[in-house]
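hiii, so i know i said id send this last week but things got crazy w the move. better late than never?? heres the sequnce for the chain we talked about at the cafe, plus the structure i predicted for it. fair warning i was half asleep when i ran it
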Amino acid sequence: MKSITIKGSQRESVGKAATKALRNAGKVPCVLYGGEKPLHFSADEISFKDLVYTPNAHTVVIELENGEKFDAVMQDIQFHPVNDKILHVDFYQLFEDKLVTMNIPVRLMGNSPGVRNGGRLLFRKRKLEIRALPADLPDFFNVDISKLKIGDNISVESLLSDDFTILHPDSTVVVQVKTQRAAIVVEDDEEVEGEEGAEATEGAAEGAEAPAAETPAEESAE
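okay and structure toks below
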Protein backbone atom coordinates (compact mmCIF):
# COMPACT_ATOMS: atom_id res chain seq x y z
CA MET A 1 0.00 0.00 0.00
CA LYS A 2 1.18 3.52 -0.81
CA SER A 3 2.30 5.78 2.03
CA ILE A 4 1.94 9.50 2.59
CA THR A 5 4.47 11.40 4.68
CA ILE A 6 3.14 13.76 7.35
CA LYS A 7 5.79 16.08 8.77
CA GLY A 8 5.02 17.18 12.30
CA SER A 9 6.31 18.69 15.51
CA GLN A 10 6.03 17.04 18.89
CA ARG A 11 3.68 18.87 21.26
CA GLU A 12 4.89 19.69 24.73
CA SER A 13 1.61 21.20 25.88
CA VAL A 14 -1.74 19.52 25.24
CA GLY A 15 -4.03 21.93 27.06
CA LYS A 16 -7.02 23.70 25.50
CA ALA A 17 -5.18 27.00 25.12
CA ALA A 18 -2.24 25.37 23.32
CA THR A 19 -4.59 23.37 21.10
CA LYS A 20 -6.54 26.48 20.14
CA ALA A 21 -3.31 28.31 19.32
CA LEU A 22 -2.24 25.47 17.03
CA ARG A 23 -5.52 25.53 15.14
CA ASN A 24 -5.35 29.30 14.77
CA ALA A 25 -1.92 28.83 13.22
CA GLY A 26 -3.30 26.40 10.61
CA LYS A 27 -2.02 23.27 12.34
CA VAL A 28 -3.85 20.11 13.38
CA PRO A 29 -3.36 18.48 16.80
CA CYS A 30 -2.68 14.76 16.45
CA VAL A 31 -2.06 11.73 18.65
CA LEU A 32 -0.22 8.55 17.70
CA TYR A 33 -1.38 5.49 19.64
CA GLY A 34 -0.09 1.93 19.71
CA GLY A 35 3.42 2.51 21.03
CA GLU A 36 4.68 2.49 24.61
CA LYS A 37 2.78 5.71 25.25
CA PRO A 38 0.67 8.12 23.19
CA LEU A 39 2.69 10.59 21.13
CA HIS A 40 1.20 14.08 20.80
CA PHE A 41 2.25 16.10 17.76
CA SER A 42 0.91 18.66 15.30
CA ALA A 43 1.13 19.06 11.53
CA ASP A 44 0.09 21.62 8.94
CA GLU A 45 -3.53 21.14 7.89
CA ILE A 46 -2.54 21.11 4.21
CA SER A 47 -0.44 17.99 4.90
CA PHE A 48 -3.64 15.94 5.22
CA LYS A 49 -5.04 16.86 1.80
CA ASP A 50 -3.91 13.70 0.01
CA LEU A 51 -4.73 11.50 3.00
CA VAL A 52 -8.24 12.70 3.85
CA TYR A 53 -9.76 14.09 0.65
CA THR A 54 -9.35 10.99 -1.48
CA PRO A 55 -11.24 7.75 -2.05
CA ASN A 56 -7.98 5.80 -1.82
CA ALA A 57 -6.52 4.16 1.27
CA HIS A 58 -3.00 5.01 2.41
CA THR A 59 -0.65 4.26 5.25
CA VAL A 60 1.25 7.16 6.80
CA VAL A 61 4.85 7.91 7.68
CA ILE A 62 4.91 10.41 10.53
CA GLU A 63 8.19 12.31 10.42
CA LEU A 64 9.04 14.50 13.38
CA GLU A 65 11.48 17.41 13.49
CA ASN A 66 13.91 15.41 15.65
CA GLY A 67 14.27 12.81 12.89
CA GLU A 68 12.03 10.14 14.40
CA LYS A 69 9.76 8.30 11.97
CA PHE A 70 6.71 6.17 12.67
CA ASP A 71 4.64 4.02 10.31
CA ALA A 72 0.95 4.44 11.04
CA VAL A 73 -2.62 4.40 9.76
CA MET A 74 -5.24 7.04 10.37
CA GLN A 75 -7.65 5.79 13.01
CA ASP A 76 -10.04 8.68 13.55
CA ILE A 77 -10.58 12.25 12.35
CA GLN A 78 -12.75 15.08 13.68
CA PHE A 79 -14.09 17.95 11.57
CA HIS A 80 -15.52 21.31 12.60
CA PRO A 81 -19.33 21.02 12.35
CA VAL A 82 -19.69 24.29 10.44
CA ASN A 83 -16.63 24.92 8.26
CA ASP A 84 -15.38 21.29 7.95
CA LYS A 85 -11.86 22.20 9.00
CA ILE A 86 -9.88 19.32 10.47
CA LEU A 87 -9.89 19.62 14.27
CA HIS A 88 -8.03 16.49 15.37
CA VAL A 89 -6.54 13.30 13.96
CA ASP A 90 -5.73 10.02 15.72
CA PHE A 91 -3.21 7.60 14.27
CA TYR A 92 -2.34 4.03 15.17
CA GLN A 93 1.28 2.91 14.94
CA LEU A 94 2.09 0.01 12.62
CA PHE A 95 4.44 -2.85 13.41
CA GLU A 96 5.57 -5.44 10.87
CA ASP A 97 4.41 -8.38 13.00
CA LYS A 98 1.08 -6.93 14.24
CA LEU A 99 -2.22 -7.19 12.41
CA VAL A 100 -4.02 -3.95 11.62
CA THR A 101 -7.66 -3.28 10.70
CA MET A 102 -8.37 -0.93 7.81
CA ASN A 103 -11.10 0.01 5.33
CA ILE A 104 -10.09 -0.70 1.73
CA PRO A 105 -11.96 0.92 -1.19
CA VAL A 106 -13.67 -1.14 -3.89
CA ARG A 107 -13.09 -0.23 -7.53
CA LEU A 108 -15.45 -1.47 -10.26
CA MET A 109 -13.90 -2.59 -13.54
CA GLY A 110 -15.56 -3.21 -16.90
CA ASN A 111 -19.10 -2.78 -18.23
CA SER A 112 -22.01 -4.93 -17.09
CA PRO A 113 -24.12 -6.58 -19.85
CA GLY A 114 -26.99 -6.66 -17.37
CA VAL A 115 -27.01 -2.87 -17.19
CA ARG A 116 -26.88 -2.60 -20.99
CA ASN A 117 -29.98 -4.80 -21.09
CA GLY A 118 -31.92 -2.49 -18.81
CA GLY A 119 -30.84 -3.67 -15.36
CA ARG A 120 -29.92 -1.44 -12.46
CA LEU A 121 -26.40 -1.52 -10.98
CA LEU A 122 -26.36 -1.32 -7.18
CA PHE A 123 -22.99 -0.62 -5.55
CA ARG A 124 -23.58 -2.02 -2.05
CA LYS A 125 -20.11 -1.91 -0.49
CA ARG A 126 -17.80 0.90 -1.54
CA LYS A 127 -15.27 -0.08 1.15
CA LEU A 128 -14.47 -3.37 2.85
CA GLU A 129 -12.98 -3.67 6.32
CA ILE A 130 -10.05 -6.08 6.47
CA ARG A 131 -7.41 -7.23 8.95
CA ALA A 132 -3.88 -7.88 7.73
CA LEU A 133 -0.20 -7.38 8.38
CA PRO A 134 0.97 -3.96 7.12
CA ALA A 135 2.91 -5.49 4.23
CA ASP A 136 -0.22 -7.31 3.00
CA LEU A 137 -2.60 -4.34 2.92
CA PRO A 138 -3.99 -3.91 -0.62
CA ASP A 139 -4.51 -0.47 -2.17
CA PHE A 140 -8.02 -1.40 -3.27
CA PHE A 141 -10.25 -4.28 -4.36
CA ASN A 142 -10.65 -4.56 -8.13
CA VAL A 143 -14.10 -5.99 -8.84
CA ASP A 144 -14.76 -7.06 -12.45
CA ILE A 145 -18.42 -6.51 -13.39
CA SER A 146 -18.01 -7.35 -17.10
CA LYS A 147 -19.94 -10.63 -16.69
CA LEU A 148 -22.70 -9.40 -14.41
CA LYS A 149 -26.10 -10.13 -15.93
CA ILE A 150 -29.49 -9.12 -14.57
CA GLY A 151 -29.98 -10.95 -11.28
CA ASP A 152 -26.24 -11.56 -10.74
CA ASN A 153 -24.13 -10.27 -7.88
CA ILE A 154 -20.57 -10.34 -6.58
CA SER A 155 -20.16 -11.13 -2.90
CA VAL A 156 -17.31 -11.02 -0.41
CA GLU A 157 -16.78 -14.76 -0.93
CA SER A 158 -15.24 -14.13 -4.35
CA LEU A 159 -12.74 -11.63 -2.92
CA LEU A 160 -11.24 -13.79 -0.17
CA SER A 161 -7.45 -14.05 0.04
CA ASP A 162 -4.85 -15.80 2.16
CA ASP A 163 -3.09 -12.45 2.64
CA PHE A 164 -5.85 -10.85 4.72
CA THR A 165 -9.16 -11.45 6.49
CA ILE A 166 -12.27 -9.62 5.27
CA LEU A 167 -14.35 -8.65 8.29
CA HIS A 168 -17.73 -9.13 6.60
CA PRO A 169 -19.77 -12.32 6.16
CA ASP A 170 -18.87 -14.20 2.98
CA SER A 171 -22.42 -13.71 1.71
CA THR A 172 -22.22 -9.89 1.89
CA VAL A 173 -23.11 -8.46 -1.54
CA VAL A 174 -20.60 -5.95 -2.89
CA VAL A 175 -22.29 -5.12 -6.21
CA GLN A 176 -25.33 -6.49 -8.03
CA VAL A 177 -27.54 -5.94 -11.06
CA LYS A 178 -31.28 -5.96 -10.45
CA THR A 179 -34.22 -5.71 -12.80
CA GLN A 180 -36.08 -2.45 -13.15
CA ARG A 181 -39.54 -2.47 -11.60
CA ALA A 182 -41.22 -2.39 -15.01
CA ALA A 183 -40.34 -4.87 -17.73
CA ILE A 184 -38.48 -3.22 -20.60
CA VAL A 185 -39.05 -4.27 -24.20
CA VAL A 186 -36.90 -2.40 -26.70
CA GLU A 187 -36.99 -2.33 -30.46
CA ASP A 188 -33.81 -2.19 -32.52
CA ASP A 189 -34.01 1.59 -32.93
CA GLU A 190 -34.41 1.98 -29.14
CA GLU A 191 -31.47 -0.21 -28.26
CA VAL A 192 -28.90 2.58 -28.63
CA GLU A 193 -30.77 4.90 -26.29
CA GLY A 194 -31.06 2.15 -23.69
CA GLU A 195 -27.37 1.39 -23.86
CA GLU A 196 -26.40 5.03 -23.52
CA GLY A 197 -28.50 5.34 -20.37
CA ALA A 198 -26.98 2.17 -18.98
CA GLU A 199 -23.44 3.33 -19.66
CA ALA A 200 -24.18 6.57 -17.85
CA THR A 201 -25.46 4.56 -14.88
CA GLU A 202 -22.34 2.44 -14.87
CA GLY A 203 -20.09 5.47 -15.19
CA ALA A 204 -21.70 6.98 -12.11
CA ALA A 205 -21.13 3.79 -10.17
CA GLU A 206 -17.52 3.43 -11.27
CA GLY A 207 -16.77 7.05 -10.45
CA ALA A 208 -18.41 6.66 -7.05
CA GLU A 209 -15.10 6.06 -5.29
CA ALA A 210 -15.17 9.68 -4.12
CA PRO A 211 -16.91 9.89 -0.70
CA ALA A 212 -19.44 12.44 -1.97
CA ALA A 213 -20.60 10.28 -4.87
CA GLU A 214 -23.01 8.05 -2.93
CA THR A 215 -26.02 6.76 -4.84
CA PRO A 216 -28.79 7.09 -2.22
CA ALA A 217 -31.61 6.73 -4.73
CA GLU A 218 -30.40 3.33 -5.81
CA GLU A 219 -29.25 2.05 -2.46
CA SER A 220 -32.36 3.12 -0.59
CA ALA A 221 -34.59 1.49 -3.20
CA GLU A 222 -34.08 -1.83 -1.50
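btw The CA atoms of residues 164 and 188 lie 47 Å apart. thought thatd interest u
miss u guys!!
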